[in-house]
């Protein structure tokens, strides 16, 4: 085992595989694609305290999260965010694995908003 090598954790590997955007990139996608869907994947309480205008709440911890993907148009762009970026990365992975092509992650979540 090479102790000098620093392995990346699984979350960081997943994050690097996503289309990660900063705030300006997020806003640019919204301008270019007015039909884009903004998904807030935080808890209901977090969402009620504050959210990006026009966001749809879709709790990462909800039992029916994957079922809700079935009702969504896979051709639309989706902008996903949470508080820090960890949940949104996981949702992006799940959505891409479910056939969504245009999925964007707010890198760093609302902490970087």
Q: What would a concise description of this structure say?
A:
By secondary structure, the chain is of the alpha/beta class. The protein contains 5 helices and 5 strands; from the N terminus they run αβαβαβαβαβ. It has a single domain, classed as Oxidized Rhodanese, domain 1, CATH 3.40.250.
Describe the secondary structure blueprint for this structure:
Elements lengths: L9 H7 L2 E3 L1 H10 L4 E4 L3 H6 L6 E2 L7 H5 L8 E4 L4 H12 L5 E4 L7
Parallel strand pairs: 1-5, 2-3, 2-4, 4-5
Kindly list the characteristics that best describe this protein.
113 residues; alpha/beta; Oxidized Rhodanese, domain 1; globular
What does this structure look like?
It is a single chain. With 113 residues, this protein is of the alpha/beta class. The chain has one domain: 3-Layer(aba) Sandwich (Oxidized Rhodanese, domain 1). It is 35% helix and 15% strand. It has helices at 10-16, 23-32, 44-49, 65-69, 86-97; strands spanning 19-21, 37-40, 56-57, 78-81, 103-106. It has a five-stranded parallel beta sheet with strand order 1-5-4-2-3. The radius of gyration is 15 Å and the shape is globular.
């Amino acid at each position: 085992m090479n102790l000098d090598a620093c392995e990346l954790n699984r979350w960081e590997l997943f994050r690097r595989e996503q289309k990660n955007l900063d705030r300006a990139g997020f806003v640019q996608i919204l301008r270019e694609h007015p039909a884009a869907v903004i998904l807030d994947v935080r808890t209901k309480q977090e969402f009620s305290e504050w959210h990006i205008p026009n966001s749809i709440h879709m709790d990462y911890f909800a039992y029916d999260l994957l079922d809700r993907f079935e009702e969504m148009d896979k051709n639309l762009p989706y902008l996903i965010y949470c508080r820090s970026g960890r949940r949104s990365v996981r949702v992006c992975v799940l959505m891409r694995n479910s056939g969504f092509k245009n999925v964007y992650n707010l890198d760093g979540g609302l902490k970087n908003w």
